[in-house]
Amino acid sequence: HLQRAVSVQTGAEDSTYHFYKRMLAFRKAHPALAKGDLKILGAEDQALSFLRSHDGGTLFVAFNLSGSERRIPLPAGMWQQDRTAPFEGTIEGNEAVLSPWSAIFASGKG
Fold first, then answer.
1. Which residues contact 101 (CB under 8 A, 6 or more apart)?
2. How many CB atoms lie within 10 A of CB 4?
3. pLDDT tens digits, 26-47
4. Are 58 and 51 in contact (CB under 8 A)?
5. Given this model, what pLDDT does residue 48 score?
6. In what side-by-side order are the strands of the sheet with 90-92?
């Protein structure tokens, strides 16, 4: 249990502590994640994608809940990956490419 102690995790940038700290800051910077309208795009085969919209802004969010790389289609429109999110997915053409157990956040207009 010692490796899970806060005193240990605060010193490791790749720790669960720092991941949650970055994710909470990301959520705070994007009100649509807390207050926005929700439109589910897909929820099947260990993948989830949806749109969150609030005050004229829209976020595309996709999660890969599997141990294999996944390609998830982007909705129609122009999307730009938000690299401030603590995940390592990428956009290639009209798809989000997600490594295992990962996610992507992209802003744009569908």
1. 64, 65, 66, 67
2. 10
3. 678 778 888 889 999 999 889 9
4. yes
5. 97
6. 70-73, 95-98, 90-92
Could you tell me the pTM of the whole model? 0.80
Beta strands 78-81 and 70-73, pairing class: unpaired
Q: How far apart are CA 85 and CA 21, in angstroms?
A: 11
Rounded CA separation 97/78 (Å)? 16
List the structure tokens of 6: 């806060």
Residues of the chain falling short of pLDDT 70? 1-20, 26, 109-110
Query: Tokens standing for 34?
Result: 């807390």
Rg of the Cα atoms in the chain:
15
